[in-house]
Structure formats: C-alpha cells, structure tokens
Amino acid sequence: MCGCTHSTGDQVLHSEGEPHPSAAPTSTFAPRKMPKSMSISKQLASIKALGKGSDLEKAMVTIALIFRNSSDPDGKLGKATAKNLLQTQFRNFTEGQETKPKYRAILSELDEHTENKLDFEDFMILLLSISVMSDLLQNIWSVKIMK
Q1: What is d(CA 127, CA 125) in angstroms, rounded to the nearest whole number?
Q2: How open is the CA angle 8-120-11, to the nearest 5 degrees?
Q3: Hey, which of 57, 71, 119, 138 would disulfide with 53, CB 3.0 to 4.6 Å?
Q4: In Å, what is the CA distance from 78 to each residue of 27, 49, 50?
Q5: What stretches of 2-147 adopt beta strand conformation (E)?
Q6: Is the pLDDT of residue 51 over 50?
Q7: What is the pLDDT of residues 76-126, one digit of tens each?
C-alpha cells in the first residue's frame, strides 16, 4: 500500500504499575494485559504516563490502542480489519470520498492481497493519507476561528 516494510520498534505503552523499561529492545506494543473488551477510555486512563498528556498525545495513544486491540498476536492488522476500522472508526473522514480515485485505490489495495497485513506504521500512513484528502479536513480549514 504505502511501500513500508517495517514498523517502528522502540515505543511501548506502559500501564499503571508496570516497571519502567530497561535498555533492552522492546516491541511496538505492550503485552496484551488490558482486555480487548475494556473501553478505550478506561485503557487510556490506565496509562499512567498520560495523566498530564496533551490532547495530541492522547489522540495518538488512542490510535495505538485501537490498532493493538484490533491486531493479531503478532501486532499486525488484517486488511479487512483495517478497512472495517476505516469505515466504522474513521467514517467522518471517509464519508464523501467514494468518488475520489485515490480513496478508491486505497480501498482496492485493502481488498487485494488480503494475506498481507499492516503494521502500525502502515496503518498510520493509511490514516494520514485519508485525513489529508478528506472533505472533513477541508471543512476544518475553512472554519473561521473567533479570537
């Protein structure tokens, strides 16, 4: 899809009560100690480092949690699952994109070679690509902010 063949490697989410990591290499995602049935807001609340996090940091962690909760044990996301996440969790960005060639190409890629899976980096690039071309982003830019 985006040509990426690797994922980021040194970021770990730490739940409250977990020790600080050593210098040893770590995987992209924390062990699956938080049950998938736990709401994202509860998962966010359990991440001690986010207590004073910015809105942007919380948004990024939310994306990571949604990815992790939807990924397989190897930390990969099936293309069908990625497409479903786009259509359910990202629908305000995807609405109205159906006629755009780039959007159709992205969906077509998700429908093809379904044995290939996405790592977190590829998923983030997918979200960014759709965000940049979305009508919602254009609406955000056109809103006049009163100071």
Answers
A1: 5
A2: 40
A3: 57
A4: 19, 29, 28
A5: 77-78, 117-118
A6: yes
A7: 999 999 999 999 999 999 998 989 999 999 999 999 999 999 999 999 999
Strands 77-78 and 117-118, how do they pair? antiparallel
Lowest mean pLDDT among 17-21, 37-41, 67-71, 116-120: 17-21
In sequence order, the 6+-apart residues with CB closer than 8 A to the CB of 138 are: none
Six token digits for residue 4: 């990426």
Over range 2-13, report the average pLDDT: 38
Which residue carries 């992205």 as its tokens? 106
C-alpha 66/C-alpha 83 separation (Å) is 13
Cα–Cα distance, 63 to 5 (Å, whole number): 20
Q: Which two structure tokens, joined as six digits, stand for 114?
A: 């379904």
What amino acid is encoded at 24 in this protein?
A
Structure tokens at 106: 């992205």
**CA angle centred on 37, ends 121 and 91, rounded to 5°:** 50
What is the Cα–Cα distance from 78 to 75, expressed in whole angstroms? Answer: 10
Structure-token pair, residue 60:
């990024």
| Contact indicator for 99, 84 with CB cutoff of 8 Å | no
